[in-house]
Hints:
Radius of gyration: 24 Å
CATH class of the largest domain: Alpha Beta
Distance between the termini: 41 Å
Bound molecules: NADP nicotinamide-adenine-dinucleotide phosphate
Number of domains: 2
Oligomer: single chain
Structural class: alpha/beta
CATH topology of the largest domain: Dihydrodipicolinate Reductase, domain 2
Strand order of the largest sheet: 16-15-14-13-7-12-11-8-17
CATH architecture of the largest domain: 2-Layer Sandwich
Largest sheet: 9 strands, mixed
Amino acid sequence: MAESLRHPFLQGLSKHRGAPPTVVVIFGASGDLTARKLIPAVYNLAHDNLLPADFYLVGYGRKPIPDDEFRTLATDAIKEFSRREMSPEVWARIAPRTSYVAGGYDDKPAFDRLAAHIADIEKKIGREVQVLFYISTPPSVFAPILLNLGASGLAGKHLGKSHHAKVIIEKPFGKDLTSARELNVTIRSVFEEYQVYRIDHYLGKETVQDLLVQRFANAIFEPLWNRNFIDSVQITVAEEVGVGTRGGYYEQSGCLRDMIQNHTMQLLALTAMEPPVSMDAEAVRDEKVKVLKAIQPLVLGPNGDVARAQYAAGMMAGKSVPGYLQEGGIAPESGTETYAAIRLSINNWRWQGVPFYLRSGKRMARRVSEIAINFKRPPGTLFSKDGGFDLAANTLSFQIQPDEGLSLIVNTKIPGLETRTQPVKMSFRYATTFGSNTPEAYERLVLDAMIGDGTLFIRGDEAETSWGLYTPVLDHWKAEGRKGMDSYAAGSWGPPSGDALLMKSGHQWRQP
Ligand SMILES: NC(=O)c1ccc[n+]([C@@H]2O[C@H](COP(=O)([O-])OP(=O)(O)OC[C@H]3O[C@@H](n4cnc5c(N)ncnc54)[C@H](OP(=O)(O)O)[C@@H]3O)[C@@H](O)[C@H]2O)c1
């Protein structure tokens, strides 16, 4: 549904300066994400004068926290986690409009108190506000929060008028297809889809958004972006950290749920989708869903399309680290994977025959997220030794983190009398060209939700399509227990079974 939130005087100005009067309510406001990301995002938006003049922040949670104490927690969070130093002048604009409501997530009278609190704010400023509910709690309480937003009338607030309630939901959106569908049914019993903003913070990253600009704002890439010129695509989301103190949580999740099903699939969808008819949220998300639906079911079992492994003890930065099974909170016979690699086939005109390889893991050699587009090798007739294929294939890679940027590997003549070639890397780095203090993903996403732009959020059908692909894998692994579970040394690039997945087609993983 189109929104008409913008004042006529704002027409022609950046859409990001047109947010209507807003109350942001954070559920789970005493939590880690609120302190590390959400409060600093609000602060930096205030710093950039991107918040509406009538902006209010309300924390909500079970723990009783007086308003003053919540403001102190928020100040501490900004000092510790904001990308900019805390400016007392900027904070002074938000602090008096920051408050806290204590209550349970299944406590309807507490939601009525929240509704009364919001009504008081409206009375004070003499106008209606839109309310943006940010559900930043563990998933076990997503449903009671949503249902109480419905029961207390908060979700339907101002529905149909220019301002209305919206909800941001943090991942995980279910743990398999059935639970994802159930969650969507609950969400839609209370909110219309256009009110819902499912966050995958990867979509807020500059390089991820740049992928669409590179693809569709440059004439040189799109004509080559297909099976005639591209040999394979590799998407890597590698972490250096192990499970640390989050073993209990990770045992219920694993790499496929934690990383592959969401972040890497978002990267894949943006890489592989057709050009949308516009940058409108529905046009972009329609194309993402279309390409996800063209992915072939995965072949399971030996010689199939998936590999999984757990990290074993190894060396990281000169220190020895324990293996997954030795970490706290991990079952001795755990069947939870800390690494997964997948080979995907997309059955459409653009991509048939081009393998897409995805991998993600903990305790890998280096923290890096990248998309590498490997072009077909040039014919070796002129420059390569004996007409063989030792010219490098051109590779275009988008580095999403760290050190965001873009690079292209091209073959070049080595200076000298003989014609010898060497692949060289042409690089563009965001930090070098634009400076390093770029907005954090959460700043962009919170602001987009405030102004009603859902382009960088996941639609319900997108989440379900992705779960539909991976649920058979999860079921298969569960049935197999530890059978087929490979291992890799902490600090390495993954297990032999991950390499074997590519070797079958004559490929190998890049070392990003
Ligand atoms: N932290 C991150 O970097 C990160 C990144 C991506 C996604 N996420 C997602 O964001 C959400 C919030 O993450 P978080 O790390 O902030 O979570 P958290 O710190 O574990 O929990 C947030 C708040 O929720 C309430 N809570 C915790 N456990 C609960 C339970 N079992 N039942 C009911 N309420 C409970 C607590 O507040 P009260 O006790 O006051 O109610 C807690 O302060 C999660 O869905 C997570 O998956 C987090």
